[in-house]
Every structure is written in structure tokens, then in C-alpha cells.
Automatic annotation (TrEMBL):
Residues covered by the Molybdopterin dinucleotide-binding domain: 163-270
Organism from which the protein derives: Citrobacter koseri
Entries under Pfam families matching the protein: Molydop_binding
InterPro entries xref list: Asp_de-COase-like_dom_sf, MopB_CT_YdeP, MoPterin_dinucl-bd_dom, Prok_molybdopt-oxidoreductase
Protein name: Putative oxidoreductase
Length: 283
């Protein structure tokens, strides 16, 4: 991020991402989804998609934290109006009435017919997902599967007792934004400096639940290390270990990517684990 000439953030509250700045960085605070959004034509609503692919309207009810706050559409449209001098889009008209934005979405994206009408129906409408209706938009008209040839495709790590690291998120986390230090999915509370290990692997390495270890990436010419992490015995596959991201991202080399997709190897990093201390910190 620091190599960018400019970075721009729009957010309802500060988070860790805002610390990753470019040469010039702007952070624009905006109205939250629970706050009233009053524009020239009246109270506005945005649309959201839930985890079941249902799209519905959402309109805030709370008094904004400041009278100076603008909505996200207002901020973006304001920047567009200021910079796109020859644009034929009526940016301020779109801000005055969000229905006009949705009309443009309807004209652009398949499956959003009668967008404004359908979001006002209680419960909203379901996003078009062809496979759930047994429709396969492929060259054959059928579902197509890719064959994985086996774990031997992975680069072999250096050293003995090499394990495979998978980075994962906790319950109280959305992407890389951490809202709290608890993970009720896995029974971890108040901390994130841990590594989940199979008990058989722990026994082989002479480790116990609560030991403090250092984790090193087991790849040629790599000196990546995550220090002073606490071992947690967990029901995870033998040969695999798990740690939270973004903390464990320091173990993922930038050039260790899938050859076809370019995806970083966050789910399969060879690592070596060494004992640092038997002084146990409370879990």
C-alpha cells in the first residue's frame, strides 16, 4: 500500500486498514447504515444482500453522529462531479434520489428487473444464482468439475517435521477487520496469538498444550517468522496447523502463489515449529 501515490478510504469507523497508507491518503467518514440519510427528495434507503443471497432495502433510523457526515453515494458522486468535468451523468440527481441509482443498476446487471419495486416487498428478493436452479452457464450446459491431482502439487518444504499452515479468521472478525478477540467457534477467548495443532503432531514435536513456539516458513531462501505463539491442541488434520490472519500473513511469501490463478498460498504454507518457552500463558 505504501507504494501507491494515492489511497482513499470511505468508512463508518476507523479500523486497521486505515493505517496502511499511500504517499497521500484520504479517509472520508460517512453515514452508517443505521443512521438517517435525508437527501433533497427525502429519506433514502440503500440495498443490502444477506448471507442467503436475499436483497432488501435498508433505511437508518438513528440521528447521524454529526451533521457534517455525508452518505457514501454523496461522497462518491461529489468526487465524480469535481473530477469528471465532461460527464453526462447527473451526479447530484442520483444523490437526491437513490431510486435513480437502482434504475441504472437494473439497466446494467441481469436479474435486477423491477429493482425498486422488489426491494420494497417484505423480505426482498433472491439474487439470481443459476446453479441453485440447476442452470449451468457453461459451454456444455452442465456442471463442470476440475480434477485436483493431489497434494504432491505443493512445493515440498525444507527440513524435517514440516507442517502445512492454513490461515483462518475468528468468529468476531470480518475479512481482516477484527471486532473482538473472541472465537466462540473454536473456544478461544480474549486472544489471537495462537496456533491450532493436532495432538499427534504435538507429541511428535515434543510440544504440549500451552507451550510457546516460533513458526518459520519452510521454503528455500525464506526467513519469514512469527514469534512467541501459543500452542492450542485442536481437532485438526494431522500434518496441518491453523493460525489467524492477518497476523499469520507474515508467513506467506509474496511470490508463493498458484501458477494459474495467482492466488496467494494462504491455505497451504509449509512451516516448521520450534519450542520457544515452556512458560505457559493462561488460555
Amino acid at each position: 500500500m505504501h507504494g501507491l501515490d494515492l489511497s482513499v478510504h470511505i468508512g463508518t469507523k476507523l479500523n486497521r486498514t486505515h493505517l496502511l497508507v499511500g504517499k497521500r491518503t484520504f479517509i472520508f467518514p460517512c453515514l452508517g447504515r443505521t443512521e438517517l440519510d435525508i437527501q433533497r427528495t427525502g429519506r433514502q434507503s440503500i440495498t443490502v444482500e444477506d448471507s442467503m443471497s436475499m436483497v432488501h432495502a435498508s433505511s437508518g433510523k438513528l440521528k447521524p453522529a454529526s451533521p457534517l457526515l455525508r452518505s457514501e453515494p454523496a461522497i462518491i458522486a461529489g468526487m465524480a462531479k469535481a473530477t469528471l468535468k465532461n460527464s453526462k451523468i447527473g451526479w447530484m440527481e442520483l444523490v437526491a434520489d437513490y431510486d435513480l441509482i437502482r434504475e441504472l443498476i437494473e439497466q446494467t446487471i441481469p436479474g435486477f428487473d423491477n429493482y425498486n419495486d422488489r426491494i420494497r416487498v417484505p423480505g426482498g428478493f433472491r439474487m439470481p444464482l443459476p446453479p441453485t436452479e440447476r442452470v449451468w452457464p457453461t459451454s456444455t450446459g452442465k456442471a463442470m468439475f476440475s480434477v485436483f491431482h493431489g497434494v504432491n502439487e505443493n512445493v515440498t518444504g525444507e527440513g524435517e517435521n514440516t507442517l502445512r499452515l492454513i490461515t483462518l479468521r475468528s468468529h468476531d472478525q470480518y475479512n481482516t477487520t477484527i471486532y473482538a478477540m473472541d472465537d466462540r467457534y473454536r473456544g478461544v477467548f480474549g486472544r489471537r496469538d495462537i496456533i491450532f495443532m493436532n495432538e499427534g503432531d504435538m507429541e511428535q514435536l515434543g510440544l504440549e498444550h500451552g507451550d510457546r513456539v516460533d513458526i518459520r516458513t519452510a521454503l528455500p531462501d525464506s526467513d519469514l517468522c512469527l514469534e512467541d505463539i501459543t500452542v492450542v491442541a485442536y481437532s485438526i488434520a494431522a500434518g496441518s496447523v491453523g493460525a489467524y490472519y492477518p497476523e499469520a500473513n507474515v508467513l506467506v511469501p509474496l511470490n508463493y502463489i498458484d501458477k494459474e490463478s495467482g492466488t496467494p498460498s494462504y491455505k497451504s504454507v509449509p512451516v516448521n515449529i520450534t519450542l520457544r518457552s515452556k512458560e505457559i500463558r493462561a488460555l
